[in-house]
Design brief:
- With 114 residues, the chain is α+β, with helices and mostly antiparallel strands.
- It has a single domain, classed as Crystallins (Gamma-B Crystallin, domain 1).
- The protein is built from one helix and nine strands.
- The strands form two sheets. Strands 1, 2, 4, 7 and 8 form a five-stranded antiparallel beta sheet that branches. Strands 3-9-5-6 form a four-stranded antiparallel beta sheet, with no helix packed on it.
- Strand 1 and strand 2 (40-47) form a beta hairpin.
- The longest helix is centred in the N-terminal third of the chain and has 17 residues, at 3-19.
- It is globular.
């Protein structure tokens, strides 16, 4: 093979390596919460939730038909911001450090991990 062809092939291979996206990172651990439905008090959790991605709590996503979740318990290794509205809209209500929890007075419908 000629040197120019080798250099061109190497450049193409390097470009392909750099173009492959890195896997999405996730917070390691569980994020737990409490919510009420027609059957009473329920407990939910997110296992190893994605970082830097808004997660709307599905059981309380509709403000017209459900009350917000409460008592966030962040047992992950990342900090978490909780929002009163779905889709992490508006200003975060609170931020929880890794391995921390807040009281039942903290209401939320979505969460985002650092």
């Amino acid at each position: 093979m000629r040197p120019r062809a080798i250099a061109s092939a190497a450049a193409c291979a390097l470009t392909l390596l750099l173009a492959v996206p890195a896997p999405a990172s996730a917070a390691q651990g569980d994020f737990k919460y409490v919510y009420n439905d027609a059957n009473g008090t329920q407990y939910g959790s997110l296992e190893n939730p994605k970082s830097k991605t808004c997660i709307t709590i599905s059981q309380v996503a509709d403000p017209d038909t459900t009350e917000p979740a409460f008592s966030p318990d962040n047992e992950t290794d990342k900090s978490a911001s909780v929002y009163l509205k779905p889709n992490c809209t508006g200003t975060p209500r609170f931020s929880l450090k890794a391995k921390s929890q807040l009281t039942s007075r903290v209401k939320f419908r979505s969460v985002k991990f650092s």
